[in-house]
Each structure stands twice: as structure tokens, then as C-alpha cells.
């Protein structure tokens, strides 16, 4: 009798896994045009004219040229992409200037692909799963809309994802190196700074001290070389200008952006910061307060659960949550799959990985309310992961 019941459970699980793989395969099919665009860019120096990588070409590459020729123009870009990091960080991209465009962008693409593969291997080693679940984890990466978005923009997000995974690995080993990796990630992607105070809350003093010391050293050296005036411009661009504002553009997935898309009629192609009304500002602060309270109530849970919650919260309460930041959630979704939380994991992964609609579709439906709400799918997927982490048990996120 028991063996028959076990056999039925195994059959049901296999059937569920089959449906999971079919859904992920469908997501992968939706990504086909983006895969094609990525591979075309890899081959572009040999076969077709370069299409360019928007963020790399007009952000990082331009910043590298500016830091070499005239640092005072570092934050004066007139293009759609801007460099929003400390001046000294621009030196990371100086080696690319020796290759020129478009070859520098192709090199960045290959580096990002290598970083993504390394991140995938590390996640697979942590998940400890076999068979179809392992295939589902693989498809989670392959079907990632944020990943394709990051590769096609020439973004640094894949490198930051790898740094976050290394941070997690060294934190488990109680090594101070964890703080250095977290600081490196936060220096490039500002919302990740919120992970550092959580280290102090959980009394991970070695990692916390290493993170703070790394940030201080980089900042002091940057100011010593380039002066305070240039750094004042950086703080204005990266922090002050975003306070009390939000953008409506379809590729921002923060709570504020979701509210603005619902309560204003601004274009989904508008990247101009919009001042928040007192009502929306209050709603944003209340929402952030609820998330912080939820994190504090789970302060005695497994630290990886807490870190995952802080990561989700830091993304959705930031003024701007770019679509490619969704890559940071891939390891969390993979862990959910390994813990057999299929329903939660699959819904969250579909919401997070779903590709951005084509420009023609966005243009045609941008005034339709259901579409303006649905375009925030990454926000809802991130929120679902946060709620699931909050309501979950005390079992480690790394447990199979």
C-alpha cells in the first residue's frame, strides 16, 4: 500500500516537472529573437555591421574615454545611457578603449557570457539537485529575459551577479572576503548597498567591516585623485536627483514606477524623473516600511533567507529597478526549485523571466490600463519571491 502511494506521488511529481519544463521551454522560445540578436552581435565584426550595445557604447565606453581625456566631462553624456558610478570605477573600462568600437562591445559581451556561465556553475553546485529539476534550473537561466537584456545592452549585471554569488559562498564560510565581494557589487549597482547594514544586523562583523573598509578605501582614493567637485556631481546624479521621484518607462520595475504607470498617463517611453505626489510618496514609504518590518521579523531565520529578502526589497523599493537587475534573482529562484516549491518558483520565474514586449506592442498598448499594470511583471515576480521567503519556514535556502 505504501509503495503504491509512493509510486503515485512520484508519478505526480514527474508530471508536474514535465509541465514546468514545458513552461520554461515556452519562455525560451519567446527569447529566440533576443538570442538571435546576441549571436548576431558576436559575429558582427565578421559578417554584418555592428548594431552596438547601448549602455556599454554610450555609458561605460564613453566614461572610459572621458576619464582619460577630460574627467570633468565624465557625467555630461548627451546620449540615452549615462555613467552613474564613482569616477575611479571608470578605469575598469579603460582597457576596452584600446580595441575601439564595435570590438570593445563584442569583448564585453564575451566577458559577460563567461561571467554568466561561471555564475550558473556555482548555482548548480549549491542547489544540489538531480534530473529534471536540474534541467529546470538550467532553463531558468537560459530563458531569462533580464539576462538577454543585460547581454544586449552590454551591461555589467552578469559580473555583479557573479560577485553576489561569491559573496554568498564566502559568507557561509565566515570569511571576511565576503564583504569585499559585496562592496565590489554595490559600487557598481547602488541598490545593493542595502545588503551591507544587514550584515551588521546579523552580527557578521568580519564581512561587514571588510565591506565598509573597501567602500571607504575606494571612495577616499577616488576623491584624492579627482577632487570633491566631480564627486558632488556623482552624488547629484546617483542619489539626490532620484529622491522623491520615479520614472514611468517600461524597463523600470520598482514599486514607484508601477504606481506611476497606474496613476499617471505618462508615456512608457519616458525616462524623465517625475516628482511623486504626497499620496504616492506616502504609499512608497509605507510599502518600504512593511518590507523592512518583515525583514526584521525574520532576523533569526537562516541568514541566506534574510539576505535574499533584503535583495528583493532593495530592488523594488529603489527609485529605479532596471529590468536587467532581475538577473540577481536567478539564484533565489533556483533554490526554490531545489526545495520542491514548484508552484511558487514557476510563477515567480515566469514573471521575472518574461521578455519585454516589442517596441511596437508597447507603443500600441501603452494607454491600456491592464497593459500598464502587466508591464510591471518583474516587480510582481520579485514581490512574490519576497513574500514566499517571508512566509517560509526556518529551513536553509540552500537545503535541498
Folded structure, characterized:
Helix 2 runs parallel beside helix 6 (145-153), helix 4 (103-127) packs parallel to helix 14 (330-338) and helix 5 (131-142) runs antiparallel to helix 14. The protein has one domain. The protein has 18 helices and two strands. The chain starts with a helix and ends in a 9-residue tail after the last helix. It is mainly α. Helix content is 66%, strand content 1%.
Task: Provide a concise account of the structure shown.
This protein has 18 helices and 2 strands. The protein has helices at 2-30, 32-43, 54-69, 103-127, 131-142, 145-153, 157-172, 177-188, 195-201, 205-238, 255-263, 278-297, 303-316, 330-338, 342-353, 359-365, 369-374, 377-391, and strands at residues 245-246, 274-275. 44% of the residues are buried.
Report the sheet with the most strands, covering strand number, pairing sense and barrel closure: 2 strands, antiparallel
Specify Rg, calculated over alpha carbons: 21 Å
Strand line-up in the sheet with most strands: 1-2
Structural class: mainly alpha
Count of separate DSSP helical elements: 18
SS strand fraction: under 5%
User: What is the terminal separation in angstroms?
Assistant: 27 Å
Could you report the average pLDDT, rounded to the nearest whole number? 83
Give the low-confidence spans. Answer: 45-50
Give helix and strand order, one letter per element, not per position. HHHHHHHHHHEHEHHHHHHH
Amino acid at each position: 500500500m505504501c509503495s503504491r502511494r509512493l509510486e503515485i506521488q512520484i508519478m505526480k511529481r514527474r508530471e508536474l516537472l514535465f509541465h514546468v519544463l514545458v513552461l520554461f521551454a515556452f519562455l525560451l522560445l519567446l527569447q529566440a529573437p533576443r538570442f538571435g540578436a546576441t549571436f548576431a552581435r558576436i559575429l558582427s565584426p565578421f559578417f554584418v555591421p555592428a548594431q552596438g550595445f547601448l549602455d556599454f557604447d554610450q555609458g561605460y565606453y564613453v566614461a572610459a574615454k572621458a576619464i582619460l581625456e577630460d574627467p570633468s566631462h565624465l557625467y555630461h553624456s548627451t546620449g540615452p545611457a549615462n555613467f552613474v558610478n564613482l569616477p575611479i570605477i571608470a578605469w575598469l573600462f579603460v582597457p576596452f578603449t584600446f580595441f575601439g568600437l564595435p570590438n570593445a562591445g563584442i569583448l564585453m559581451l564575451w566577458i559577460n557570457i563567461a561571467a554568466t556561465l561561471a555564475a550558473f556553475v556555482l548555482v548548480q553546485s549549491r542547489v544540489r539537485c538531480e534530473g529534471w529539476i536540474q534541467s529546470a534550473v538550467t532553463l531558468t537561466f537560459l530563458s531569462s529575459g533580464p539576462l538577454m537584456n543585460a547581454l544586449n545592452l552590454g551591461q555589467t549585471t552578469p559580473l555583479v551577479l557573479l560577485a553576489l554569488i561569491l559573496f554568498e559562498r564566502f559568507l557561509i564560510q565566515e570569511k571576511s572576503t565576503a564583504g569585499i565581494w559585496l562592496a565590489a557589487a554595490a559600487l557598481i549597482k547602488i541598490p545593493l548597498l542595502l545588503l551591507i547594514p544587514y550584515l551588521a544586523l546579523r552580527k557578521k562583523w568580519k564581512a561587514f567591516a571588510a565591506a565598509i573598509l573597501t567602500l571607504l578605501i575606494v571612495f577616499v582614493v577616488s576623491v584624492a585623485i579627482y577632487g570633491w567637485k566631480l564627486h558632488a556631481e556623482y552624488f547629484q546624479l546617483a542619489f539626490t536627483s532620484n529622491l522623491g521621484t520615479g520614472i514611468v518607462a517600461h524597463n523600470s520595475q520598482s514599486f514607484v514606477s508601477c504606481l506611476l504607470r497606474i496613476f499617471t498617463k505618462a508615456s512608457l517611453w519616458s525616462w524623465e524623473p517625475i516628482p511623486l505626489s504626497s499620496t504616492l510618496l506616502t504609499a512608497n514609504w509605507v510599502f518600504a516600511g512593511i518590507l523592512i518590518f518583515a525583514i526584521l521579523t525574520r532576523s533569526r531565520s537562516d541568514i541566506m533567507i534574510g539576505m535574499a529578502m533584503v535583495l528583493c526589497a532593495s530592488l523594488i523599493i529603489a527609485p529605479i529597478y532596471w529590468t536587467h537587475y532581475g538577473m540577481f534573482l536567478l539564484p533565489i529562484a533556483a533554490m526554490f526549485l531545489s526545495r520542491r516549491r514548484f508552484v511558487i518558483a514557476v510563477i515567480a520565474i515566469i514573471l521575472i523571466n518574461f521578455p519585454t514586449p516589442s517596441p511596437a506592442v508597447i507603443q500600441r498598448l501603452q494607454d491600456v490600463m491592464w497593459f500598464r499594470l502587466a508591464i510591471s511583471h518583474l516587480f510582481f515576480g520579485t514581490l512574490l519571491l519576497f513574500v514566499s521567503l517571508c512566509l517560509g519556514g526556518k529551513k536553509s535556502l540552500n537545503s535541498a
